[in-house]
Amino acid sequence: MKTEIGAVNALPTPTTLVGATVNGKPTYTTIAWVGVIGRTTLFVSVNKQRYIISGIRENQTFSVNLPSENLVKETDYCGIKSGKDVDKSALFKSFYGKLKTAPMIQECPLNMECRVVKTFDTPTHDVFIGEIVSTHCEDSALVDGNVTLGNLKPFLYSMTDKGYWKIGKKLANAWEIGKNIK
User: How far, in Å, CA of 18 to CA of 62, rounded?
Assistant: First the structure.
């Protein structure tokens, strides 16, 4: 039996820290509304009231940093405090890659620096489409040169219960397990 609960977005999403340079300084905000568009293209949906928007718009760059479970407190803080009021970069060691205006967080095991290729203006959010210019990953999260999710220890955000959730074990190999159905 199922209960119809209305037009509720119940999709869990990865919790990320998006970085940009605002007024010459790195800043970060928590964004869970992030998704894949293609192999080297992603999007972040940022509330128009967020301080970080001015830096993304000015520089046309941003970073997506995937925090691990041990950064849940700092990640939450970056979502509830504004960069206008506090220096959130003081929580982390920032570094830069190819794009000199997309600060990344050393403590996050995975970082992607992105160049804005398109922006969609919605009534409440700006949606930035980013081309991934370079990805940086801790060696401990790489197996045979590939990122291994279990070693990253990312966490999800659930809009329905406003909670952060751990990710469990690998279930099966994609494009393999389905071959067993006849």
Answer: 7
